[in-house]
Design brief:
The chain is of the alpha+beta class. The chain folds into four domains: 87 residues, Uridine Diphospho-n-acetylenolpyruvylglucosamine Reductase, domain 2 (2-Layer Sandwich); 122 residues, Uridine Diphospho-n-acetylenolpyruvylglucosamine Reductase, domain 3, CATH 3.30.465.10; 110 residues, Alpha-Beta Plaits (2-Layer Sandwich), CATH 3.30.70.2190; 89 residues, 2-Layer Sandwich (Alpha-Beta Plaits), CATH 3.30.70.2740. The strands form five sheets. Strands 15-12-14-13-18-20-16 form a seven-stranded antiparallel β-sheet, with helices on both faces. The chain has a five-stranded antiparallel β-sheet with strand order 5-6-10-8-9. A four-stranded mixed β-sheet has the order 1-2-4-3. Helix 1 runs antiparallel to helix 3 and helix 13 packs antiparallel against helix 14. Bound molecules: flavin-adenine dinucleotide. Flavin-adenine dinucleotide binds next to strand 3, helix 5 and strand 10.
Length: 479
């Protein structure tokens, strides 16, 4: 089918205004939250599962690869059309279809923004726990694809722990259900846990068109501490000390001096300007429990060298502390126009050592590195701040990022805690996985998407040898 007829066919399915193809308009879809770029051949914005199915079937028939796109906040290039794919954008499919308060579940379309869901269900005394720092913008579909984490995932687990069922459209347009049926709140399902396999598949298995999530009751009490430390080392010691006491806070976030200063230039969050690091610790639970554990946490902070400990007295104080933390990446605009955010994981016990080496890497490559991260999980986020307009700056940032990832792996950690592999980290996969490991992953992908039409060129290194298994009947087996 020629391009004009193909565009017309997409328009016939989703409506004339919902197919983007003018080169100027396509520029909007060129990037996500990271540094990779790629202009899609066309962007189609379906309004329902049925439209998604018909669009996918047509793309399949015409041999067109597809990249799903949520809100485009991804930090590993997952939604980027690196090979000129068409994008299916889910911004029109943004309805909360059902909130079942009694059974504590909600069914949503993939374009629903994370915070919108949480805000809606809080009216019924419930919450959606996974809260990526991008929650004001990122979509549930993108969260599923990346198995998103967030500050409160320390206590509650990442997205996969909160997804019960999925309606998914496969590469050829077929529609399947994974996990709990979207129409029933029954939580246990027999057979393989394909829901679990799908979450974190980075848009390579299929596209989620409906999502059933678990809701939790809003806790009776919340207590939020801000502990300021003279340096990163003492803040890291405080993290280990709290955990060593058997306390699992709902959240435990760390910010270094560069981050504190960037934030304070944007808003007065009450973070001490002269601190070398701050820890934001939140406890949730029953009133008495939170008070008791809170006293122990506070003692821990002082014992490990805190120079200041504040407790948010009012809800508005708490909101301000979190607004500053979740706005940290934006605040880096005060320092440099571009940011390359590295997402590595290390054992918590190695935090001090690894952060010192991250700082050395910054000096070696001549880049400023700010650290703001989920300290309780050992999930580092060194943010390399640079100006793309300076010759060689992007290359230096990219090389520094690679060096940091190698460092994390050498420290017994891994390549990504929550942002996915996507385009960004695919060449580093051999640092953690053997050829056989990756072949096993691709065989699973082939079971969902045998033609590899969804997000091709992501996750696996270019040129990695892979022979899809041919069906071989075992000897003696009669067909
Ligand atoms: C300031 C900032 C802070 C962040 N903080 C966090 C954080 O704390 N924790 C965290 O985990 N991440 C964080 N992120 C990263 C990002 O927000 C998450 O990865 C988020 O889940 C991406 O959602 P999205 O809707 O923007 O997805 P997109 O960027 O649009 O896409 C991401 C991936 O999802 C796939 N996809 C999108 N929709 C679907 C669908 N319906 N079906 C199948 N695949 C789909 C895409 O193909 C792509 O591979 C942050 C990003 C920014 C910019």
């Amino acid at each position: 089918m020629d391009r004009a007829r193909l565009l017309q066919a997409f328009q016939d399915i989703v409506g004339e205004g919902n197919v983007v193809f003018h080169p100027d308009d396509l520029l909007v879809y060129e990037y996500d939250g990271s540094v990779d770029r790629g202009i899609p051949s066309v962007v189609v914005l379906p309004g329902s599962s049925e439209e998604v199915s018909r669009v996918m079937a047509l793309a399949y028939q015409e041999n067109i690869p597809v990249a799903a796109r949520g809100s485009g906040t991804g930090l590993s290039g997952g939604a980027i059309a690196s090979q000129g794919e068409m994008q299916i954008s889910f911004t029109r499919m943004n309805r909360i279809l059902q909130v079942d308060v009694e059974n504590r579940v909600a069914v949503v379309e993939p374009g629903v923004v994370n915070l919108e869901l949480d805000t809606q269900v809080r009216k019924s005394g419930l919450r959606y726990a996974p809260d990526p720092s991008s929650q004001r913008a990122c979509s549930l579909g993108g969260n599923i694809a990346e198995n998103a984490g967030g500050p409160h995932c320390l206590a509650y687990g990442t997205t996969t722990n909160h997804v019960l069922g999925l309606e998914v459209v496969l590469e050829d347009g077929a529609m399947i259900n994974l996990g709990s049926s979207i129409d029933s709140p029954v939580r246990e399902t027999p057979g393989y846990d394909l829901r679990g396999v799908f979450v974190g598949s980075e848009g390579t298995f299929g596209v989620a068109t409906k999502i059933m999530v678990r809701l939790l009751p809003v806790p009776q009490a919340v207590k939020t501490f801000l502990g300021a430390f003279p340096d990163i080392d003492s803040a890291c010691t405080a993290v280990s000390s709290v955990i060593a006491q058997g306390i699992v806070p709902a959240a435990m976030e760390m910010m270094d001096a560069v981050t504190i200063q960037a934030i304070q230039k944007t808003m007065d969050a009450g973070y001490p300007n002269d601190a070398g690091a701050v820890l934001l610790i939140e406890l949730e639970g029953l009133q008495e429990e939170v008070e008791g554990v809170g006293n122990r946490v506070e003692a821990c902070l002082w014992d490990t060298g805190a120079i200041q400990v504040n407790v948010a007295q009012e809800e508005q104080d708490r909101v301000k502390l979190w607004l500053a933390r979740k706005g940290a990446f934006g605040a880096f605009g005060n320092i440099a126009p571009n940011m390359y955010l590295v997402d590595g994981v290390v054992p918590r016990t190695k935090l001090t050592q690894v952060l010192a080496e991250v700082s050395e890497i910054g000096s070696q490559y001549g880049v400023t590195i700010a650290n703001v991260f989920h300290a309780g999980d050992g999930n580092l986020h060194p943010c390399i701040l640079f100006d793309e307009r300076e010759a060689g700056a992007l290359d230096r940032a990219t090389e520094a990022s690679a060096e940091i990832l190698r460092l994390c792996v050498a420290a017994g950690g891994t390549l990504t805690g929550e942002h996915g592999v996507g385009l960004e980290k695919k060449e580093y996969m051999p640092l953690v996985f053997s050829t056989e490991d990756m072949a096993a992953m691709r065989q699973v992908r082939d079971a969902f998407a045998p033609e590899n039409r969804l997000n091709p060129g992501k996750i696996f290194p270019d040129g990695e040898p892979y022979q899809p298994p041919a069906y071989r009947p075992s000897p003696g087996m009669s067909l």
